[in-house]
Amino acid sequence: MADNWEQAIVDADLDDDILSVSDVFWGDDFDGDGESNWTEWQNNTDPTDASSASDISMAYNNFLFEIFRGAEQPDSGPFVASRWGARLICWPREDESFISGYLKIPGDETPVPLKVNETGDKARFMDMDYSSLDDLAATYVPGEYRVNLMALEGLSGPHQLRFKVELPFYSSESFPDYIAIESPWPRQTGVSTTPLFDFGSDAWNYVELLKADTLMETYLHLKDNMDTDVHEVPPEAALENGVW
Length: 244
Known about the structure:
By secondary structure, the chain is mostly beta strands. Helix content is 10%, strand content 34%.
């Protein structure tokens, strides 16, 4: 393997024990995608990025990284922008769980720790304390963001999973328009089980009626598999938990 190619592995993580090209071995798997450094060299894939693999099934893509904005929806008139932020969510692959992880922001040498669930089935980070796009863009600049996760797979020992995300230039025009929601008030009872809005299947997964473990009947809207609002419904309208 060429020295300049191996140097990319050396430079990818300055906090590890790979200090020179002599520490890079052909049989190692630096990025943790299941393909050795030699295989990545042979196939011209990125040995520092688990989302880059010659075998697509080996590439890691179980993550979401986004810059977002939120707004207050008044009773009338235009929306009022209220917050700006960034978030990263990582899910492990089959038979894998996370132990720890961090995000590296371009231009910032201090790693940002990720919060890992007790079960190891999610590693996440969210930063939404920004009142303007300018404030957000001063921290989350366009460039290459690196993520390093420590993971367990089956009975084997811990291994590194490394990948990167390229954040392009963005401006206020980069964000989609706000969507007005007609919805019952939270915890309102006796509401219709027919949705009062239509967002299209591309954005929303489904509307679910369920009976939670708490026995509270709810009317649950889900977008990108995340709860967005919850309302009580008449008991006879609720479905068993998980039925939709």
